[in-house]
Write a structure and sequence with these properties.
Low-confidence stretches: none
Strand order of the largest sheet: 14-13-12-11-7-10-9-8-15
Order of helices and strands: EHEHEHEHEHEHEHEEEEEEEHHE
Helix content: 25-40%
Radius of gyration: 20 Å
CATH architecture of the largest domain: 2-Layer Sandwich
Largest sheet: 9 strands, mixed
C-alpha cells in the first residue's frame, strides 16, 4: 500500500521507520505543516518526500492510504477528510476525543467500505497474546478484575508547551498516552463497559497539566477494572488479569522503545507452582499495520471491531468527564 504519514513528531517518525522495512508498504510522503528540527533530514535519509499540507496528499492519486499521527483534537476532522478523499485510513490513538466523534468516523468508514486501522499495537505484544489465549482456553476461568499500573517519567523533560501536556489534546493526564491502551485491553478482555469513576491530580507538574490518574471501571459481566497512571516516577508497567481459576501478570521492564523484556507469571492455584515466561520485544507496531493492510486487501479480518473502538472512546470520554467532576460515577 502506498501511504503518507501525517505528523512528524517522535511517534510519526517511529511509524515511518517501521513501515519502510515492511514489504506491505511504500511510504511516499511525510506530512507536517510545522516539522520539528531534524524531521526533514530524517525523511530525506529514507527517501520519503516532504509535504506540508495534508490536502495536497489527499489530492494525490498515487497515495492509497493515510496514517494519522497528529495532535489528538485534529483526528476526527482529518479522519473524515481522508475518508472523503477515498483513501484508506489508519489513525493513531485516541481515535477521537469523544464517542460522538468516534461514531461519525466509524459510520464514514462503513459507508466508504473501508477498514479502520487503529494504533493499539499493545494487543499484539506476546505477553498480551498469552493472556488472550489463557482467557480463551478457560485457564483463568471467569474474568473478574483487570488491574494495571503503567507509569513513567518520560514527559517530565519535555517543554511545558508541548501539546502532549495540553488538556485540550491530552485530558486526564496520561490517558491518551498509555491509559487508552489499557482501556482497549479492558474492552478486548472484559467486554462492554457500563460504569466509570476517575480522578486526576497535579502532584509534580504545574497545573493544568496532570500527572496522576486513577480509574475504576465496571463491565456488563460484573467484572471490574482499575488503572493507575503516574507521569512523574521511573518506568513501571504491570497488568494483572484475575479470574476465578487463576491469574496472569504481565510485567514490562521498560517502555516500548527501550527493547527490554516482559515477564508473564501465571498462577492456577494457591498451591500450584507458578510459571514464568520471558518474552523479548517484537515489532508490534509493524504487526498491527500489516494486519490492517491484510484486512484492507481482504485476506483476513482485522482484530479490532468497530464496537470495541467505539466502546474504548466511550470509556475515555467518561474518564475525562468523571475526573472533571472529582470522581463522580459516570454510567455508560
Amino acid at each position: 500500500m502506498r501511504v503518507a504519514v501525517a505528523g512528524l513528531g517522535w511517534w510519526g517518525k517511529q511509524i515511518i521507520s517501521c513501515l519502510v522495512k515492511s514489504p506491505r508498504f511504500e511510504v511516499l510522503h511525510g506530512v507536517d505543516p510545522s516539522p520539528l528540527e531534524g524531521a526533514l533530514d530524517f525523511l530525506s535519509g529514507l527517501g520519503v518526500a516532504y509535504v506540508a499540507d495534508l490536502d495536497a496528499v489527499l489530492a494525490d492519486e498515487a497515495v492509497e492510504g493515510v496514517i494519522l499521527a497528529t495532535p489528538h483534537r485534529l483526528h476526527e476532522a482529518q479522519c473524515l477528510s481522508v475518508l472523503g478523499a477515498g483513501k484508506e485510513l489508519f489513525c493513531e490513538k485516541p481515535l477521537a476525543m469523544d464517542a460522538a466523534g468516534a461514531a461519525r468516523i466509524i459510520a464514514a468508514c462503513q459507508q466508504a467500505g473501508k477498514v479502520l486501522g487503529i494504533g493499539h499495537e499493545r494487543r499484539y505484544e506476546p505477553g498480551f497474546e498469552q493472556v488472550r489465549k489463557l482467557l480463551e482456553d478457560g485457564t483463568l476461568g471467569r474474568p473478574l478484575l483487570f488491574e494495571a499500573n503503567i507509569s513513567h517519567d518520560l514527559f517530565r523533560g519535555i517543554d511545558r508547551s508541548n501539546w502532549r501536556l495540553d488538556p485540550r489534546h491530552a485530558p486526564a493526564g496520561m490517558m491518551t498516552a498509555t491509559g487508552i491502551h489499557q482501556t482497549d485491553l479492558c474492552v478486548a478482555f472484559l467486554g462492554t463497559p457500563v460504569e466509570v469513576r476517575a480522578q486526576t491530580s497535579s502532584l509534580i507538574f504545574e497545573p493544568p497539566a496532570t500527572d496522576f490518574v486513577t480509574v475504576s471501571l465496571r463491565f456488563g459481566s460484573g467484572a471490574r477494572g482499575t488503572i493507575t497512571l503516574l507521569s512523574c516516577t521511573p518506568y513501571y508497567g504491570r497488568v494483572t488479569l484475575f479470574g476465578d481459576k487463576g491469574w496472569v501478570e504481565v510485567a514490562s521492564e521498560g517502555n516500548v522503545d527501550q527493547g527490554k523484556p516482559t515477564l508473564v507469571t501465571v498462577c492456577t492455584g494457591t498451591n500450584a507452582p507458578r510459571t514464568v515466561t520471558t518474552h523479548h520485544p517484537t515489532d508490534t507496531v509493524t504487526a498491527n499495520f500489516e494486519a490492517w493492510a491484510a484486512a484492507v486487501a481482504g485476506e483476513r479480518p482485522y482484530r479490532f471491531t468497530n464496537a470495541q473502538l467505539l466502546d474504548n472512546i466511550r470509556l475515555f470520554e467518561a474518564i475525562v468527564a468523571s475526573a472533571g467532576q472529582n470522581g463522580a460515577t459516570i454510567p455508560l
